[in-house]
Amino acid sequence: MSAILKGKKGDQRLFMGNEAIARGALEAGVNVVAGYPGTPSSEIIESLSRVAKDRDIYVEWSVNEKVAAEVAAAGSLAGLRSMCTMKMNGVHVASDFLLHLALTGTRGGMVIVACDDPNAHSSQNEAEMRHFAQMLEIPLLEPGSFQDAKDLIKWAFELSEELRSIVFIRGTTRLSHASGQVVLDELPETERKAAFRHDGFILDQMTGSVISLPIAFKHPQLQEKLQKAAERYEGCPFNSYTGPENPDVLIITSSACTFYSIEAVHMLDLQNRAGILKLTTTWPLPKRLIKKHLQTAGQILVVEEVLPFMEENLKVLAYEIASEIGIKPILGKRDGTLPSHGEMRPDVVAGALAGITGTSVDQRSEEYEKKVNERVFFGAPARDLTFCPGCPHRASLWSIENVLQMDNRQGFVCGDVGCYTMGLSPSNFGTLKTAHSMGSGTGLASGFGKLDRFGMEQPVLSVCGDSTFFHTGIPALVNAVHHGSNMIMVVLDNSGTAMTGFQPHPGIEKNAMGDVAKSIDIAKVCEAIGAKVRVEDPFEVEATQEALFQLLEEEGAKVLVLKQVCALSPEKKWSKKFEMSVDTELCIGEECGCNRLCTRIFRCPGLVWDQESKTARIDSILCTGCGVCASICPANAIRKTPLAANGKEVA
Fold it and tell me: Quick check: 214 and 222 in contact, CB under 8 A?
């Protein structure tokens, strides 16, 4: 039984933040859950997919975040409770539909959990989603503890059904992926029946047709809902204050920054001088609650991640009530007291608090930091960011890089988001020359491929993962084919959303709940669009390079599908196709014209340079037996012996 199903009301459980959110959704009686994988949000659906059949709920990994929001909205419009999950970048993808849904409103409760990634630990930027709540004019909630992460979900569903509106819940990396004790509530038995009413008056939100027009009616109605949310926020049980009655400094904070603020106050021993107002209701702000605390405070420090979203709204509110509370200095990111980038930390908050209160904080000296780093990294080998042993992306980029070098026309590759983004780094051949959002590599290549009229003669390729192909790669390819763009789209098909944990996508024969599903053939989709298509195994280096050379000679939009399962996927892990070895008599190493090509350039972690023998050798623990290194050794010193499925040599 899954951990999120265990336990009865009143029991305590140690949950990761995302697991707490999943448990909260079950306690709220959720019926439909959809999302797209993206760190730090992925574990919410992962947790719920494992218990979907036990709890009789529907869970899916959708093709992208916009579709996930639409699937969840269908559940809500049919009277069910639905939830949608994504990372912050996904809100940008879903925003077109959400702008309309905010106006039409919802029926059954609908909660969107979007997780931000301050400091971009697993992202290419640290953009945040809070501003979308303001743009969409819908309520925003931010859990400030692991208990909040669970309990707030049920409160959000109730708020959504009261307002008939989407409700945003914002997570962050440190809350999503850290763990804490959570007190459980009961799991309800729900028997909701889905039905979509569309026979009522067109302006009746619960029975009429669902459209965002007329704006003259819908927009004022949306703003009325937001005002009701602000009123409901005044008594929200998840807002809290701790500290003296009249603090010298009032810290107003939210989300994971609550932890940092509490620790900073204790570090400086300011419990009698500093108060902490933890806000869960960060948009719209509860006016009366904030007014009460601003009146009693000397100075205000706003601690949040990443941009001064709450700080700016607080300043607007403080200006509006200045005649009642006086002018209050509100410090934070706008005046430079705190940085407007990266994560907050207890020492950063303590430093700002010390400056405001005139106290001192024990900062680590440079010498101390140096000694810590020496201790932590003592004896650890230098290691570049590189692909895993046996990664098909290494083989794919090796072939692409070599073909472009031999072609000698300064060709280049446009990339996007995935494991293959590491192809930007020198340790992975530096093959990728651009990297933006999902699918943007092919969109850029579509544009570059039309610049021949301006004298551009360089070949252009894009690389796109199989999950990304379904997410946003298809429209870019359609554009390239329709406009006759001269480019090659290379689909790196490793049979799963590998970067975020092998979640299934439409190219896989199973869904999020483990049921058999109809798989969509990527090559056939590309052929139907009108592209010339080749399918190769990237581990077959010669055939892959030959296919690339042929496609470079042809005009128009072409697709090369390089299909090979990820070395870390559950179906492939612990299995080897070949037993690899190095013939030390043939390996000349540094004396060879290749000058250690295998360990210096190809750099698979399964290949090691032996300093004593001055030859390459195979690390039998790391090697996955893909056999690619045998294809790249100019001295034929690397040998591969076929293995049967049982791991024994084939006679």
Answer: no
Q: Are 616 and 599 in contact (CB under 8 A)?
A: yes
Asked whether residue 374 carries a pLDDT value surpassing 70, the answer given is no
Q: Based on the number of CB atoms within 10 Å of its own CB, is 280 exposed (0-12), middle (13-18) or buried (19 or more)?
A: buried
Answer yes or no: are the C-beta atoms of 534 and 546 closer than 8 Å.
no
Token output for 457:
């003669």
| Cis before 247 (ω within 30) | no
Shortest CA distance to 182 belongs to which of 213, 217, 145, 219? 145
Neighbouring C-beta atoms of residue 119, cutoff 10 Å: 17
All domains of the chain in start order, with CATH: 3-233 (3.40.50.970), 240-357 (3.40.50.920), 392-563 (3.40.50.970), 578-642 (3.30.70.20)
DSSP symbols for 96-112: HHHHHHHHH--SS-EEE
Task: Kindly report the pTM of this predicted structure.
Answer: 0.89
Residue 372: burial class (beta carbons within 10 Å; 0-12, 13-18, 19+)? exposed
On average, the pLDDT of the chain sits at 92
- The DSSP symbol for 507 reads T
Position 425 confidence tier, pLDDT thresholds 50, 70, 90: confident
Altogether, the residues listed in the chain come to a count of 651
Lowest mean pLDDT among 73-82, 266-275, 422-431, 514-523: 422-431
In the chain, DSSP finds a helix count (H) and a strand count (E) of: 21, 24
SS3 state at 271: coil
Q: Where are the beta strands (DSSP E) in 144-248?
A: 166-172, 179-183, 240-242
Residue of 130, 144, 150 lying closest to 174 (CA atoms): 144
> Which one has a higher pLDDT value, 514 or 310?
310
Asked whether 551 and 538 are in contact (CB, 8 A), the reply is no
With tokens 């709920």, the residue in question is 57
CA distance 403 to 393: 15
Segment (H or E) for 580: strand 578-582
The string over 405-422, giving b where at least 16 C-beta atoms fall within 10 Å of a residue's C-beta and e elsewhere, is eeeeeebbbbbbbbbbbb
Give Cβ neighbours of residue 334 (< 8 Å, ≥ 6 apart): 308, 311, 312, 315
Pairing of strands 638-642, 578-582: antiparallel
pLDDT, tens digit (0-9, with 9 covering 90-100), for 384-409: 778 889 999 999 999 999 999 999 99
pLDDT tens digit sequence for 411-420: 999 999 888 8
User: How far is 256 from 174, CA to CA, in rounded Å?
Assistant: 6
Q: Where are the strands (E) in 226-350, listed by range?
A: 240-242, 249-253, 274-278, 281-283, 299-303, 330-331
Say whether 556 sits in a helix, a strand or coil.
coil
φ, ψ of residue 32 to 5 degrees: the values are -130, 130
Q: How many CB atoms lie within 10 A of CB 532?
A: 17
Give kind and range of the element (H or E) at residue 355: helix 346-357
Farthest CA pair distance, the chain: 90
CA angle 143/171/85 to nearest 5° reads 120
If you ran DSSP here, which 8-state letter would residue 520 be given? P
Peptide bond into 459 cis (omega under 30): no
User: How far, in whole angstroms, is CA 327 from its chain's centroid?
Assistant: 41
- Cβ-contact 243, 274 below 8 angstroms: yes
Q: What is the DSSP string of 365-396?
A: PHHHHHHHHHHHHTTPPP----PPTT-HHHHH
Q: Which two tokens stand for residue 164?
A: 């008939």
